[in-house]
Amino acid sequence: MLAERMNHLGTETAFEVLARANALEAEGREIINLGIGQPDFQTPEHIVEAAIKALKDGHHGYTPASGIPPLRQAIADDLNSRHDVTIEPNRILAVPGGKVTMFLAMMIYGEPGCEILYPNPGFPIYESTIRFSGAKPIPIPLREQNGFAFSAEEVLSKINERTRLIILNSPANPTGGVVPRGEFNALIEGLYKWPDVAIMSDEIYGQMLYDNREHVSLIGYPEITDRLILLDGWSKTYAMTGWRLGYSVWPEKVAPHAEKLCVNIHSCVNSSAQFAGIAALKGDQSPVKAMVSAFDERRAVIVNELNKIPGFSCIQPGGAFYAFPNITKTGFRSDELQKKILEDAGVAVISGTSFGEHGEGYLRFSYANSTENILKAVDLIKGCL
Ligand code: PLP
Question: Is the CB of 248 within 6 Å of ligand 1?
Answer without folding.
Answer: no
